[in-house]
Predict the structure of Elongation factor G-binding protein.
Amino acid sequence: MQEFITSSDYHFILRQARTVMNGNMNANDEDVLAAVSMMAVERAEQSASDVPDELAEVIRTMGNIREREDYDRFREQLLPFVRPMAEVTDRDVRKLFPKVKNLRMPKFSEAVRKELTYLGWNDPGTNRKYIVFEEGDGLTALFGQFRPSGKKGVCSICNGIDETGLFLTETRHAGGETYTKRGNYICTDSMACNRRLDDRGRFEEFIGTVTK
Ligand SMILES: [Zn+2]
């Protein structure tokens, strides 16, 4: 099957689906529920471009979500349409981080990669967080010092509230004589971060600020 939706669109559609589910669990007014469902379906349809009929049909069933079971079934029906993030091999990692020796990257299955806008992992040995993402036809990577704060805060990538840490990056400028240091609070758990990330634009903005 051809895959049509990105991970961030997938999470966006799921958020709309949860709105319908929560609306049904918390509200009794039929008119309010119908409005909530209609709005959620509309927003979900707008998020995916050139929606083929099979996908449009699945999205429309969102209006019928009443409870957790319906939500889980909806998610399963949506999954085949989601394009996973490209697989990143150990060879890719060595190329992306040529100066880092013995870098270990966890393995990410295809099911997990469907949930990822970026691949992120912590290396407690060096107190670093590594980030790899797709850009054009290739992969781009960066890393920074990372120390979990042990406290909850707002993440600069997903905008959600979770345990965050300070991600410190250094950008060298032309000639290599000057550099800019930047610090951003981002989620300690990059998997949870990806699951909240329902707008790829926010991730790109973050990358833009740390690499400037
Ligand atoms: Zn986050």
User: Anything to note?
Assistant: Residues 27 and 33 are 7 Å apart (CA to CA). The two ends are 39 Å apart (CA to CA). The helical segments are 7-26, 30-47, 53-60, 68-78, 90-96, 110-113, 190-196, 200-211.
